[in-house]
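Why does residue order matter? Because the sequence determines the fold. Keep that principle in mind as you read this record.
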Amino acid sequence: MTALYKLSEQYNRIYEMGVDEEIDAQTVLDTMESLEGEIQEKLEACCRVIRSWEAQSEGLKVEIATLTKRKRATENALEKMKFYMAEQMGVIGVEKMEAGIFKLALQNSPPSMEIADESKVPSEYVEMTPVINKAKIKAELMAGKLLKFAQLFQGKHLRIR
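Structure:
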């Protein structure tokens, strides 16, 4: 079976030959009609592959959500178990212990900090990242305003129904 891009090239070549009158109009029409049928079949096959990939993508999305939820639950259980073990070692006053093939030790965590009231933090400790308001720029361009730094453009995308 011929590749879609080759069919498109053939179609364009036949069209150009008809425009240049190298072959008669009826031959051009018959050839283009047969190529159109093949192109339609190829495009239909491509659409079927796209639908299959879309379904697979949705299935993976659901599986990712399920696995993410399980991962979070496992990590929470892990943290609770570690907290429980550390708490029990503290209750009996033990800093280090061997438990079978494992060696356990309570140790100090790195220093951490907490901000009591963010509104009272001096500006020298605050970093601001500028955010471009693209929605406002687009709205102004749509309203006909000319902006030197931006312009509207109309792209195309494939819609499959």
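Strands lie at 96-99, 102-105.
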